[in-house]
Every structure is written in structure tokens, then in C-alpha cells.
Design brief:
By secondary structure, the protein is an all-alpha fold. The protein is 58% helix and 3% strand. Strand 2 and strand 3 form a beta hairpin. The structure holds coenzyme A. The site of coenzyme A has 16 residues, from helix 15.
Length: 342
């Protein structure tokens, strides 16, 4: 009897799972493309929903196709009262990511799972998920603070509506625009852990809501989606520009990982970090400075001196937390916001 011996690779290190046809990353040149279009161009010229359409269906929609898509998303934004009632029973101390994972899975209880071979069923499921996840994130945020959730507003676009549901106030147009770009920047990044997890779950032909719940669970871990929350805690712990060098010297000595720096693929500054930094500055110019930004700039300088030669530069999480903070979003909502685009 012969025994086939297959090499075991812990953590699938170096084992390519699949190749993405949706996005492309060049880690040496700092290039990220969605379906062949550079991320800078999309951030400047497209809305998040137009980008989502591009990612899902492979091409930029015509004006009419985009209008239909936007209309469908608006139509499906509301969540059933039973889902709201279920969420009301969640402990207010629970993490918003756990609330989101549970609520996303619960959608599968309400919408038939028997039509996976029907493209219309899949399209509606995609639309429902894109439409309802922001509503569920905002609803839990209000309910955990003892308030009733706010109904979505059909006259507001995707990003503005989310900020409205979160704060019960119509957002400033710049804040809505910046948030929309943030969604675009986080919308896709080849085969990361949550995408891989979604692919494994979908391969068993479960319903799309179960697939997304599984991806949300994977994204929830601090090694994946949670780094920008940690960046804000780190900036708060450092507290002043003078403390940056001593803080970092200790990290260098102990070989501790500095949050918001380094990337498996990018060996230069993450192109998304460059755009997010510009957005943060636009917000500071309009709504006032954040002293954490000075600390962040000093960190970038000192890390560059010491680790630049190893290709360690700011990643997407380094400046996104500063942007969200200026938009008034609490730090434990950073990862659920990332999940909106999962
Ligand atoms: N702080 C300090 N040193 C770091 C570092 C960081 N954030 N990221 C990498 N390094 C070090 C590595 O330990 C390695 O050191 P060595 O040459 O002494 O072995 C060297 O720099 C090269 O690391 P590299 O191979 O480029 O990175 P990686 O693939 O091992 O790790 C991450 C990539 C993302 C896991 C890592 O950079 C990290 O943990 N970053 C902090 C968390 C974070 O911001 N996550 C969000 C990612 S989008």
C-alpha cells in the first residue's frame, strides 16, 4: 500500500488559494486596481456604488444602469421590525461586529435560500446586503446607547444616508463625500482572509447571507480588520509629538509591531494611505485640526528612518482611523464600516 505524503503548510503560508480577476496589486510600485482601473481614478471620479457595480459585474455601469442600481439599493435599505427587535435584545456591551455578524446571518431566515442558480435571486441578495448592512450597523449603534434606530432617508445617497442614520443629523457634504471615498478605498483587495473565508463558505452552496456572516466573522479579528482601531489607541497612548521617538525606540528594541505600518504585499506606502491622508487633511481644513495628526506625521518620519529600508510604510489603517475620528465615528465602529463593503 502506498502512502501519499502531502506537505503541510501552517497557516497556508506561501500557498496560493486562487488568483483574483477582480483586483490587482503591485506591492513594489504601490498600485491598486479594481477591474483594471486605478484606485486614484475611482476615488476621484466614481461614487462607491458605481465602484461596487464595477466590482460585482465587471464593468462601469451606464448612467441608466447606475440609476437602477441606486434605486434598488434605496428600496431595500429598510430592515424588518423583527430584525430590529432581535437586535434590541443584544447586550449593549456587545461588540458591533458581533451584532453585525448575527444580523447578517439572520437575513437568511427571511429570504429564501433555494434559488442559488437564479441570477435574479443572487442579484437581489447582493443588493439587500449592500443596502441593509449600513442600516444594521447604524441601528445597533443607536440602540446600544438607548435610542431608537433611525429610518433610512431616500433623498440621501449611500454615504450621506449612513452618516445620517448614525447621527440623526444630515451630514456636511464634505463629510459625506469623504466617507464615500473611504468606502471605495476599502471595497476590494484581492484574496484577503475574509474573502477567502467567503469563498470557502459559498463553495458549500449556502445562502449569500451565511456567506457574508462568515466573512464578517473573519474580518472581526484584530489581525485583519481591527488595526485602525488599534492605531487610534496607540496615538492616544503616545499623547504628544515629543513622546513619539521614545515610544518607537521601545518598539524597535522589543521588535513589537507598530500598528498601521507594514503590509504583506506593499513594500512602499500603501496607495490607499496616501489618499486617506489627503482626505484627513481636507477634513482638518474644514472642521479643525486633530493633534493626533501631528503625532502620526512624526511617527511616519521616525519609522521611515528606522524601517524604511525593510519596506515598512503606512498601510491603509494608519490614516483611516483619523478620518473616521474626524467624522465623529466611534472607534469600535471602524471594523463594521469596513464590513459594509465586504
Ligand atoms: N512594525 C515593526 N516592524 C515591522 C512591522 C511593523 N508594523 N511590520 C513588519 N515589520 C518587520 C518584520 O517583523 C520584519 O522584520 P525582520 O526583517 O526583522 O524579520 C520586516 O519588518 C519585514 O516584514 P514584512 O515581511 O514586510 O511584513 P510581514 O509580512 O511579516 O507582516 C503585517 C505584514 C501586516 C502582518 C505586519 O506588517 C503587521 O503586523 N503590521 C501591523 C498591523 C497592521 O497594521 N495590520 C494591518 C495590515 S493592512
Amino acid at each position: 500500500m502506498s502512502v501519499v505524503c502531502i506537505e503541510f503548510k501552517p497557516g497556508l503560508e506561501g500557498v496560493p488559494a486562487t488568483q483574483s480577476s477582480v483586483s490587482y496589486v503591485d506591492g513594489q510600485k504601490g498600485i491598486l486596481e479594481y477591474r483594471g482601473i486605478n484606485i486614484e481614478e475611482l476615488a476621484k471620479k466614481s461614487s462607491f456604488l458605481e465602484t461596487a457595480y464595477l466590482l460585482i459585474w465587471g464593468y462601469l455601469p451606464s448612467k441608466e444602469e447606475l440609476e437602477i442600481f441606486e434605486h434598488d439599493i434605496r428600496y431595500h435599505r429598510r430592515i424588518k421590525y423583527r430584525i430590529r427587535d432581535m437586535m434590541k435584545c443584544f447586550p449593549e456591551t456587545g461588540h458591533p461586529m458581533d451584532a453585525l455578524q448575527t444580523s447578517a446571518a439572520a437575513l437568511g431566515l427571511f429570504y429564501s435560500r433555494r434559488a442559488l442558480d437564479n441570477p435574479e435571486y443572487i442579484r437581489t441578495a447582493v443588493v439587500r446586503l449592500l443596502a441593509k448592512i449600513p442600516t444594521m450597523v447604524a441601528a445597533f449603534e443607536l440602540m446600544r446607547h438607548g435610542n431608537d434606530p433611525v429610518q433610512p432617508r431616500d433623498d440621501l445617497d449611500y454615504a450621506a444616508n449612513f452618516l445620517y442614520m448614525l447621527n440623526e443629523r444630515e451630514p456636511d457634504p464634505l463629510a459625506a463625500k469623504v466617507f464615500d471615498v473611504c468606502l471605495t478605498l476599502h471595497a476590494e483587495h484581492t484574496i484577503n482572509a475574509s474573502t477567502f473565508s467567503a469563498m470557502v463558505t459559498s463553495s458549500t452552496l449556502t445562502d449569500p447571507y451565511g456567506v457574508i456572516a462568515s466573512a464578517v466573522g473573519t474580518l472581526a479579528g484584530p489581525l485583519h480588520g481591527g488595526a485602525n482601531e488599534d492605531v487610534i489607541s496607540m496615538l492616544s497612548e503616545i499623547g504628544s509629538v515629543e513622546n513619539v521617538r521614545p515610544y518607537l525606540e521601545k518598539c524597535f528594541e522589543t521588535k513589537a509591531k507598530i500598528m498601521g505600518f507594514g503590509h504583506r504585499v506593499y513594500k512602499v506606502k500603501d496607495p490607499r494611505a496616501i489618499i486617506l491622508q489627503q482626505l484627513a487633511v481636507e477634513l482638518f481644513d474644514k472642521f479643525g485640526y486633530d493633534k493626533y495628526y501631528e503625532i502620526a506625521l512624526e511617527m511616519e518620519k521616525v519609522v521611515d528612518e528606522k524601517l524604511g529600508h525593510k519596506g515598512i510604510y503606512p498601510n491603509v489603517d494608519f490614516y483611516s482611523g483619523l478620518v473616521y475620528r474626524k467624522l465623529g465615528i466611534s472607534s469600535d465602529l471602524f471594523t463594521p464600516i469596513f464590513a459594509i463593503v465586504v
